[in-house]
Amino acid sequence: MKKYILLFLLTVSLSSFAGPQGFSGAAKPNSAPQGFNLNIMPNSVQGVKDNAKDGDHVLLQGIFTGENDGKGNYSFEDKDNNKIQVSIHADNLTLIANSPYFIWGIVKKSFFNCSIELIYISDPQY
After folding, report:
1. pTM, entire model
2. Among 5, 35, 107, 110, which has the minimal tally of Cβ within 10 Å of its Cβ?
3. What topology is assigned to 45-121 in CATH?
4. What is the rounded distance in angstroms from the CA atom of residue 2 to the CA atom of residue 76?
């Protein structure tokens, strides 16, 4: 009988240590691995100027306010009225003034300048 009691106590004590390791509770809803965001929101121009590094990809929403130099460099303004230069290398692109666009591009950043090289532009968002 003592063997069975001892075996029972040993089994109960070992089962308390047999749980999975490295988990700290239930997963949070809408959780994602570090570095990924489930809610893809456009960046802000100020955030790009302050935090982006050369070569980062960014998504911005805003309007084009004019062409800077006649060589495909345009001024782009977000909802906070912050501006950044966007290089567009497309011959057949027509921009509609004061229409919001989503742009996807690569940050070109140097010590004194920050601009975006356009990869993709959405249709105007009326």
Report:
1. 0.65
2. 35
3. OB fold (Dihydrolipoamide Acetyltransferase, E2P) (2.40.50)
4. 82
